Amino acid sequence: MSEAYFRVESGALGPEENFLSLDDILMSHEKLPVRTETAMPRLGAFFLERSGDAETDNAVPQGSKLELPLWLAKGLFDNKRRILSVELPKIYQEGWRTVFSADANVVDLHKMGPHFYGFGSQLLHFDGPENADISQSLLQTFIGRFRRIMDSSQNAYNEDTSALVARLDEMERGLFQTGQKGLNDFQCWEKGQASQITASSLVQNYKKRKFTDMED
Amino acid sequence: MFCEKAMELVRELHRAPEGQLPAFNEDGLRQVLEEMKALYEQNQSDVNETKSSGRSDLIPTIKFRHCSLLRNRRCTVAYLYDRLLRIRALRWEYGSVLPNALRFHMSAEEMEWFNNYKKSLATYMRSLGGDEGLDITQDMKPPKSLYIEVRCLKDYGEFEVDDGTSVLLKKNSQHFLPRWKCEQLIRQGVLEHILS
């Protein structure tokens, strides 16, 4: 990791996303199922299967079930549910919550939407009736998986870790990387390399790319 | 759906590994701004229609477009800001002179920002430590000795040491040089620090 590049961290696990965080922007692009509570004229072009024709002003009819990205759902949502109402994606519903409470370790969280924790935390904004259960489930799932992540990140030195991170969601992968960095720094110190000046990784990566640029 | 181009910009930056700076996507940015202009104009006309005809059913549509405008703005601002963070890192890892390949990846405004940042940093460093100033971009790792053993990784040419003598840096030659003179070259990958 480049030593001097400090990217804006994700705030998704807290009350609000970080406006400038690239991770949060990607997270809030994921979709969730919604139901329109009122017709939305002139937007039919986006939802061709459901839209009306020119007579209804090309509208998306009331009561349509759509999949909208989180940012849009958040923007159009209000307490009185005048424009849309939000449904929970399957993995945050009762069925999957039971699976997580049985054994959180076996689940492939990367496949279940790579931002499981972040997206789940932001879902709480929609004031659903199951919010308390969802937040408990997120917490307990993380607690169940954390031990293995910490263990594997602290003991996989200089080896291919793709099998270990394959089933982790993005937040867990970040944790894993932090653990690996700690391990690598410590090993470097143990070998006495802590005082060795090295070429910055940024420089080395630019050098490698130069050849591909020249080929164009 | 709106904001696809803006998401492309964000993904492009997110994909670039290890804080590298990809080329400035001027075309992409222009397309996002065009989409924003179109959304704004559509909303303007719908707002006028709502006011004049008294229909209230256009309001969800106006809100929809407004959300898209805000999203486009967020993506572009985050894109530009993250690039500045990467450019700032370049000053600390590469030094004050950037190779041409990198300069072509920056827009004119980013280059100007980089120059201003360099100037601010230089002014600050000069204000520290009394008359001479203090170079805080040196000694990023705690130094153990004044002189260090280095090996040359590529041909660099003549290199002058403090007492006037010059050394020829040819590939694979080894030298015993003062630490403060070599640090920059080691970070740039010209020399290699050998531990004894």
UniProtKB/TrEMBL annotation, chain A:
Residue intervals passing through the bilayer: none
Domain DNA replication complex GINS protein PSF3 N-terminal: 21-77
Residue stretches making up the GINS subunit domain: 96-189
Domain of life, source organism: Eukaryota
GO cellular component, one term: CMG complex
A GO biological-process term: cellular senescence
Main location: nucleus
Annotated keywords: Chromosome, DNA replication, Nucleus
UniProt entry tagged with the keyword Zinc: no
Entry's localization field: Chromosome; Nucleus
Family to which this protein belongs: Belongs to the GINS3/PSF3 family.
Function: Required for correct functioning of the GINS complex, a complex that plays an essential role in the initiation of DNA replication, and progression of DNA replication forks. GINS complex is a core component of CDC45-MCM-GINS (CMG) helicase, the molecular machine that unwinds template DNA during replication, and around which the replisome is built.
Subunit structure and binding partners: Component of the GINS complex which is a heterotetramer of GINS1, GINS2, GINS3 and GINS4. Forms a stable subcomplex with GINS2. GINS complex interacts with DNA primase in vitro. Component of the CMG helicase complex, a hexameric ring of related MCM2-7 subunits stabilized by CDC45 and the tetrameric GINS complex.
Protein name: DNA replication complex GINS protein PSF3
The species this protein was found in: Saimiri boliviensis boliviensis
UniProtKB/TrEMBL annotation, chain B:
Pfam families in the cross-refs: PSF1_C (PF24997), Sld5 (PF05916)
Subcellular location, record wording: Chromosome; Nucleus
The DNA replication complex GINS protein PSF1 C-terminal domain, residue ranges: 144-195
GO cellular component, one term: GINS complex
Function description: Required for correct functioning of the GINS complex, a complex that plays an essential role in the initiation of DNA replication, and progression of DNA replication forks. GINS complex is a core component of CDC45-MCM-GINS (CMG) helicase, the molecular machine that unwinds template DNA during replication, and around which the replisome is built.
Oligomer status and interactors: Component of the GINS complex which is a heterotetramer of GINS1, GINS2, GINS3 and GINS4. Forms a stable subcomplex with GINS4. GINS complex interacts with DNA primase in vitro. Component of the CMG helicase complex, a hexameric ring of related MCM2-7 subunits stabilized by CDC45 and the tetrameric GINS complex.
Protein name as annotated: DNA replication complex GINS protein PSF1
